[in-house]
């Protein structure tokens, strides 16, 4: 085991957890402080592996021992052992075999959920104080040669990540150039308001490395020659709390910082143009027609670039550590995925874009899967997990790239699952365009009719085609995708319901 450079003067105990286990993490941290004599105790953010949280990390000169969900007695024993020089002896501990490197990133164990994928955007999550600016500032790195950084991003072809990014699955450098060439003072908006509870990707980053997100945002703002950088987050969340703290600390250290703004806790509020509506103070959120896009006519009519935390930390990694930047040539870098559904605990992992969905599924305890929904609230339905996680591969399979993989077993009904999501779409859409507003209502009714024996495959498919090709924003287009892909993957189940049978047994009371 290599010597950690993070604890030269004594043991360091970290308690890593996100908002789901915040109360438990506070109790673990308090138990550690009560037991500590020479040990430094720090509370950090989530690692992405919720099954392990709260996670106690005990770092000594021998390395780091990981204790998952420790009891108060186990915490006291772990701290005492660290101070005695036997930190890895606990029966519930497993030891990170990876090199600590410069001590700035979470060391990776050889097995378990933390061993899945590569921790690049996630590198500080669970290890650093979430609100602290990184020691290596990207803003300072690009200050002297902004054109060189812009050129590097153009050559790399990095794509935007997540539905909240205005350049989702498109090269970010193109949006930067458009905004810089447009008339008016440009703005960068950090869209950290994703209210899809399934998707823990941006939430893991903002709860675990808000300081890194703010540093990357200020760097990109500099590359855009932006007059303003705005962080847009949800109401009353741990992510917002830590972003606010990170903004304050960045201002204290550098004399400048982004502005903070909060938006409603609604699914539609994370759509890029509806985020702009919220930032402008409009009570009614509606998707904006495009063109013109935000890069030419955005916040208060100014050229506006909108990126998610995932995108910004990809930019940070690409410019600071280009030697590690790989993945699919058409989608370079890594993709964050939250694996959830019928699992004991969700896990957020980071994979090179050439890896498969099956690799992500290895981070959770689920042996068999009947179906997966890939892409969040309105993801695509599939029976297979052998798709690459790159945007072109997922798009080619009619799956979503939003960063969620939901796994379901044999007792999950495909019709009931997509029916509930169609109903959500009919209730939560913004109402701006007819194909989405009326199409989601009609789609919900057509799916209900199947239970009464009325199933017309062609009518349903024509409606989903219309929604997919004519809706103003991704809300209507992706709502159609969920039903389309389910009908293709589970055609026999749809027909069975029309005949009065639910093969999974979930819908017996409706038939």
TrEMBL record:
InterPro entries: Nuo51_FMN-bd, Nuo51_FMN-bd_sf, Nuop51_4Fe4S-bd, Nuop51_4Fe4S-bd_sf
SUPFAM superfamilies referenced in this protein's UniProt entry, alphabetically: Nqo1 FMN-binding domain-like (SSF142019), Nqo1 middle domain-like (SSF142984), Nqo1C-terminal domain-like (SSF140490)
Protein keywords: 4Fe-4S, Iron, Iron-sulfur, Metal-binding
Residue ranges of every copy of the NADH-ubiquinone oxidoreductase 51kDa subunit iron-sulphur binding domain listed in the record: 415-459
SMART domains according to UniProt: NADH_4Fe-4S
Keyword Hydrolase: no
Protein name per UniProt: NADH dehydrogenase subunit F
Species classification: Archaea, Methanobacteriati, Methanobacteriota, Stenosarchaea group, Halobacteria
Highest taxon above the source species: Archaea
Family classification: Belongs to the complex I 51 kDa subunit family.
PANTHER family: NADH-QUINONE OXIDOREDUCTASE SUBUNIT F
Species name: Halogeometricum rufum
Pfam families listed in its UniProt record: Complex1_51K (PF01512), NADH_4Fe-4S (PF10589)
Alphabetized GO MF terms: 4 iron, 4 sulfur cluster binding; metal ion binding
């Amino acid at each position: 085991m290599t010597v950690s450079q993070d604890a030269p003067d004594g043991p360091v105990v970290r308690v890593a957890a996100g908002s789901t286990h915040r109360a438990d993490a506070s109790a673990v941290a308090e138990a550690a402080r009560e037991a500590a004599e020479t040990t430094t105790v720090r509370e950090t953010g989530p690692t992405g592996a919720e099954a392990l949280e709260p996670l106690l990390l005990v770092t000594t000169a021998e390395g780091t021992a990981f204790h998952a969900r420790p009891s108060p007695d186990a915490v006291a024993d772990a701290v005492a052992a660290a101070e005695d020089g036997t930190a890895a002896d606990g029966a519930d501990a497993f030891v990170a075999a990876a090199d600590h490197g410069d001590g700035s990133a979470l060391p990776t164990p050889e097995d378990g959920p933390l061993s899945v994928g590569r921790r690049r955007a996630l590198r500080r999550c669970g290890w650093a104080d979430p609100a602290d600016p990184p020691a290596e500032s990207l803003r300072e790195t690009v200050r002297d040669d902004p054109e060189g950084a812009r050129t590097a991003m153009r050559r790399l072809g990095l794509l935007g990540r997540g539905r909240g990014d205005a350049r989702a699955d498109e090269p970010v450098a193109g949006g930067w150039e458009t905004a810089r060439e447009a008339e008016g003072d440009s703005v960068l908006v950090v869209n950290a308001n994703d209210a899809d509870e399934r998707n823990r990707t941006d939430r893991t980053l903002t709860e675990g490395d808000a300081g890194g997100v703010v540093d990357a945002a200020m760097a990109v703002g500099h590359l855009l020659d932006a007059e303003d950088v705005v962080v847009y987050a949800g109401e009353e969340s741990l992510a917002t709390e830590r972003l606010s703290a990170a903004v304050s600390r960045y201002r204290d250290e550098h004399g400048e910082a982004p502005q903070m703004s909060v938006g409603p806790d609604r699914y539609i509020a994370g759509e890029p143009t509806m985020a702009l509506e919220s930032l402008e103070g409009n009570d009614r959120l509606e998707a904006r027609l495009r063109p013109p896009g935000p890069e030419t006519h955005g916040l208060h009519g100014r050229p506006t670039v909108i990126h998610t935390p995932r995108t910004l930390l990809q930019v940070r990694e690409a410019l600071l550590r280009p030697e590690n930047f790989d993945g699919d040539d058409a989608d370079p870098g890594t993709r964050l995925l939250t694996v959830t559904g019928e699992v004991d605990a969700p896990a957020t992992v980071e994979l090179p874009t050439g890896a498969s969905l099956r690799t992500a599924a290895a981070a959770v305890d689920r042996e068999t899967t009947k179906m997966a929904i890939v892409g969040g609230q309105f993801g695509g339905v599939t029976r297979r997990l052998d798709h690459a996680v790159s945007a072109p591969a997922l798009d080619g399979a009619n799956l979503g790239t939003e960063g969620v993989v939901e796994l379901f077993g044999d007792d999950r009904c495909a019709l009931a699952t997509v029916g509930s999501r169609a109903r959500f779409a009919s209730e939560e859409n913004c109402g701006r365009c007819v194909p989405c507003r009326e199409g989601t209502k009609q789609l919900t009714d057509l799916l209900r009719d199947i239970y009464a024996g009325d199933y017309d495959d062609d009518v349903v498919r024509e409606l989903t085609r219309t929604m997919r090709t004519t809706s103003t924003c991704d809300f209507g287009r992706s709502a159609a995708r969920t039903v389309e892909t389910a009908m293709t993957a589970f055609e026999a189940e749809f027909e069975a319901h029309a005949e009065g049978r639910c093969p999974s047994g979930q819908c017996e009371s409706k038939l």
